[in-house]
Specification:
It is built from 28 helices and 4 strands. It is mostly helical. It is globular and about 90 Å long.
Length: 713
C-alpha cells in the first residue's frame, strides 16, 4: 500500500510538473506567434510605395528587375552580382504579390533560424530548456533590431546567416556543409571567414568545398555579368563603396568606427588592416577552441562577430551574429550568469541612446555599442569551457531568510527571493538606465494637449480653493521678492532631483545589499504608477497658466506656443505634473533614510529633503500642492506593492533558530576530519524547550561560499 500510494503521488506530481511545462511552452509559442504576426502586419499595412524600401532596389522603376545596364548604375543596389543573379526570381514574385510573399518568406526564415539555434545549445540541456528554447529564440529574433530592419526594409541578410547555421550545425555531410557556407559567402563575402573555422576544427573537406563553391559562384557571375562583377569587385572594392556613407552610424564595423573618430586616407586604411588582422587571428582562434569544446553554436557566433568587425561595411541588418553570441556562459557565480545575455539582448533590441546617457564623454561608446559587443564576444570575453566545473553548476546564490508577514497571503509572489550579496553592478546600472529611458519616453508621449492640460489645471485650482490650500500664488510671489530665497529654491529644484536618490541607492548597494533591493523595487513601482497619472491626467503646472499670474522663476517668461526650456525643451513633457515625482522621489528618500539610518540626527536630516523639495516645487510654480499629494500617494503605493509582492523588509538573522551543527557522514576530501554543516530548520520541526543557542556560522566570502564549510552545490 505504501508503494502504491507513493507511486500515485509521484505520478500526480510528475503530471502537475508536465502540465505546468506544457502551459509555459504554449504561452511562449503564443508570444512568438503574436510577435511574428505583429511584425508582418506592421510591414504589410504600409502603403506599397512606403514598405520594404530596400526591396525597391529590386522592383522599383529603377530596380534590378527593370534596369537595362549595370546593377550598380543607380547606386541603390549594394549586394554581390551573384545575389543579383540568383535572387531575381524571388524579387519577381515579391513584385507580383506586392511584397506579401517576401514578408512571409522572411518570417519563415526567422522561424527556421530560431529552430536551428535552439537545437544547437551547448552543454547539458534539460528537457525544460529544450522545450522552451525554440519559442524564446524566435521571440528574441523577432524583437531584435536586425530582424526588424530586415522586415521593414526588405533585406536578404537573414539568408546567409541561415545558410551558415545549417551548414555548420545541421548538415552532416562535409560537402553539403561546405556548399551551404560557400553559397552564403557568395551572397555576403564576409561569410567566407567560416571556411578557416571549418579548417581549424578538422572539417577540411568542408572548408575546401566552401571556398570552391564561393569561387565557382563568383566565376559564374563573372562569365554571365562581367561588367557588374568588375564594378562590384574592382571599382567598388568588394562593395565597400556602395550604400550609405561608410562613416554613418549604421556602419558598425572597425572601418566605420575609425572614420567616425576622424581618421581617413592611407593612415585609416593601414590601421584598419592591422586591427582587422588582429581580430581575425584572435577571434578565429577562440572560435576554434570553443568548437573543439563542443560549443559549436558559440563558435559560429564568434566567427560571425569577427566578420561584422572586419567587414568594410556592416549594416545593422547584418548584426544577427552578435545576438547568437548570447549562448556563451560568462561567470562562475549564478548571480553573474545573466549579465552577458542581458547586455546582448539590450544591445540588439534598443538604440544606443537608451542604454547610455547623452554625455559627451560617452558619445564614442554610444555610437559603437554593437561593434563593441561584437569585439568583446570575439576577442575578450572569457566564456566558460564545458570542462569547467562551473559550466552547468555555477556557485549558488545565497538568499536571505524572510521575516514572517503580518498576513498569511503575503508575499503574493513567494518565489521573490532577497539576496544577501550585492547584485551585479553592471546589470543594475543597465536596468536603471534602460528603465529611466523607457520612463522618459512614455512621459514625453503621455500628453493630451495644451487645452486638456489647462482644463485639468483649472480643476485642480478649484479643488484647492474649496479646500483652502491654494497657497501657490502667495508663495511664488513671496519668494520672487526675496532674491536669496528665489536663488536657493531654483538651485534646489534643478540640482537634487536625481543626485540624492542615486546617492542613497549607491550607499545601500555598497553597505546594505538586501535593503537596496527593497528600496529600489519601491522606487521603481512608484515611478511606474506615476506614468499612469501622466498618461490619463495631463496637467499644466501653475507657471503654464498665464491668466493666474504665476512667475516661472526657473525658465523665465514663456511663449507657450513656442516655449524654450533650454536643452530639455524637446526632451520633457511640461504637462506631466500630476503626480509630482520631484516630491515623490524626495519623499522616498526621506522614508528610506528614516527607516534605515542608525542615528536620530540622520533621520531628522533625511526629512529636510522632502520639506525643501515641496517648498521648491511650489515656490518656483512648477507644481500645485495637490501634485505633491499625488506624489506621496504613488510612493506609498510603491512601498505597499513591494510589501504585498515580496513581504516585509526585515530579514531574519542567519543565526536565529538554527539547530545544532550536524556532522558529515562522508569523509573530508583531503582525508581530514568531517566538518559541520549548517542547515536551516524546516517548517515542521518542533521548537525546542527553553532558550535556543544560536549556532555559529562562518561569514560568507565574496563569491557566496562560506569559509570553512564545503560548498553544498
Amino acid at each position: 500500500m505504501a508503494n502504491a500510494d507513493h507511486s500515485v503521488h509521484g505520478g500526480a506530481a510528475a503530471g502537475t510538473a508536465g502540465g505546468g511545462l506544457g502551459r509555459a511552452r504554449a504561452v511562449l509559442w503564443l508570444v512568438a506567434a503574436v510577435l511574428a504576426v505583429r511584425q508582418a502586419a506592421a510591414v504589410l499595412r504600409q502603403p506599397p510605395g512606403e514598405r520594404l524600401t530596400d526591396l525597391e532596389t529590386w522592383i522599383g522603376d529603377d530596380g534590378v528587375l527593370h534596369v537595362t545596364g549595370s546593377l550598380y548604375d543607380t547606386g541603390q543596389f549594394t549586394g554581390t552580382p551573384f545575389a543579383g543573379l540568383v535572387l531575381k526570381p524571388l524579387a519577381r514574385s515579391a513584385e507580383e504579390s506586392l511584397g506579401i510573399a517576401w514578408t512571409l518568406g522572411t518570417l519563415l526564415l526567422v522561424v527556421a533560424l530560431g529552430l536551428v539555434a535552439a537545437r544547437a545549445l551547448p552543454g547539458q540541456v534539460s528537457r525544460r530548456t529544450g522545450l522552451l528554447a525554440a519559442p524564446v529564440a524566435i521571440s528574441l529574433l523577432m524583437l531584435s533590431l536586425p530582424v526588424r530592419n530586415s522586415f521593414s526594409l526588405g533585406q536578404t541578410s537573414i539568408i546567409p546567416v541561415l545558410l551558415v547555421l545549417l551548414g555548420c550545425l545541421a548538415v552532416r555531410s562535409e560537402r553539403g556543409s561546405g556548399a551551404l557556407v560557400g553559397i552564403g559567402a557568395a551572397l555576403q563575402p564576409a561569410v567566407l571567414l567560416f571556411a578557416p573555422l571549418l579548417w581549424l576544427t578538422g572539417r577540411k573537406k568542408a572548408a575546401v568545398t566552401s571556398a570552391g563553391t564561393f569561387a565557382a559562384g563568383t566565376a559564374l557571375t563573372w562569365a554571365v555579368m562581367p561588367g557588374d562583377s568588375w564594378a562590384y569587385w574592382v571599382h567598388h572594392v568588394a562593395g565597400a563603396g556602395l550604400g550609405e556613407r561608410a562613416d554613418s552610424l549604421a556602419n558598425q564595423s572597425l572601418h566605420g568606427a575609425l572614420l567616425r573618430f576622424g581618421l581617413e586616407g592611407p593612415l585609416e586604411v593601414a590601421l584598419f588592416l592591422v586591427l582587422a588582422a588582429a581580430v581575425v587571428f584572435l577571434g578565429l582562434r577562440r572560435a576554434a577552441r570553443y568548437a573543439r569544446d563542443g560549443q559549436l553554436l558559440l563558435a559560429v557566433a564568434l566567427t560571425g562577430c569577427v566578420a561584422v568587425a572586419v567587414s568594410p561595411t556592416a549594416w545593422q541588418h547584418q548584426l544577427l551574429w552578435v545576438l547568437l553570441a548570447l549562448v556563451g556562459r560568462v561567470g562562475t557565480r549564478a548571480r553573474d550568469r545573466l549579465v552577458w545575455p542581458a547586455v546582448v539582448i539590450l544591445v540588439m533590441t534598443l538604440p544606443g541612446r537608451m542604454m547610455l546617457p547623452n554625455m559627451k564623454v560617452l558619445v564614442p561608446l554610444r555610437e559603437n555599442v554593437p561593434l563593441i559587443a561584437a569585439l568583446a564576444a570575439a576577442c575578450a570575453l572569457p566564456f566558460l569551457m564545458r570542462t569547467s566545473p562551473y559550466f552547468d553548476k555555477p556557485v549558488p546564490t545565497e538568499y536571505a531568510r524572510p521575516a514572517p508577514s503580518r498576513w498569511g497571503r503575503v508575499p503574493l509572489v513567494p518565489f521573490w527571493k532577497r539576496l544577501l550579496s550585492r547584485p551585479n553592478l553592471l546589470l543594475e546600472l543597465l536596468a536603471i538606465r534602460v528603465g529611466y529611458s523607457a520612463y522618459s519616453h512614455i512621459r514625453l508621449v503621455a500628453t493630451g494637449g495644451r487645452e486638456t492640460a489647462e482644463k485639468h489645471a483649472r480643476q485642480i485650482h478649484s479643488i484647492e480653493q474649496a479646500l483652502g490650500i491654494d497657497i501657490e500664488h502667495w508663495v511664488n510671489h513671496t519668494v520672487v521678492n526675496l532674491k536669496w530665497a528665489e536663488s536657493f529654491f531654483n538651485f534646489y529644484y534643478t540640482s537634487f532631483h536625481f543626485v540624492i536618490p542615486l546617492a542613497i541607492l549607491g550607499v545601500l548597494y555598497a553597505r546594505r545589499p538586501a535593503d537596496y533591493r527593497w528600496a529600489r523595487s519601491s522606487l521603481a513601482f512608484a515611478t511606474v504608477l506615476a506614468l499612469v497619472g501622466f498618461w490619463f491626467y495631463p496637467l499644466a503646472p501653475p507657471r503654464l497658466m498665464p491668466e493666474l499670474g504665476f512667475i516661472d522663476t526657473v525658465h523665465g517668461p514663456q511663449d507657450l506656443t513656442n516655449p524654450d526650456y533650454g536643452a530639455l525643451t524637446a526632451l520633457t513633457n511640461q504637462y506631466a505634473a500630476m503626480p509630482s515625482l520631484h516630491f515623490g522621489w524626495s519623499l522616498w528618500c526621506g522614508v528610506v533614510i528614516v527607516v534605515l539610518a542608525p542615528k536620530l540626527w540622520m533621520k531628522l536630516l533625511g526629512l529636510l529633503h522632502p520639506l525643501f523639495t515641496i517648498c521648491a516645487i511650489v515656490a518656483t510654480a512648477n507644481h500645485w500642492v495637490l501634485d505633491a499629494v499625488g506624489g506621496a500617494t504613488v510612493v506609498g503605493a510603491g512601498f505597499a506593492l513591494t510589501y504585498l509582492l515580496a513581504g516585509r523588509r526585515e530579514l531574519l538573522p542567519r543565526t536565529v533558530g538554527l539547530p545544532a551543527p550536524a556532522k558529515r557522514s562522508d569523509p573530508s576530501p583531503k582525508g581530514g576530519s568531517p566538518g559541520p554543516v549548517a542547515t536551516e530548520p524546516t517548517a515542521t520541526e518542533p521548537k525546542a524547550a527553553g532558550p535556543t543557542v544560536p549556532a555559529r556560522r562562518e561569514a560568507p566570502t565574496e563569491d557566496g561560499v562560506r569559509e570553512g564549510v564545503r560548498d553544498r552545490a
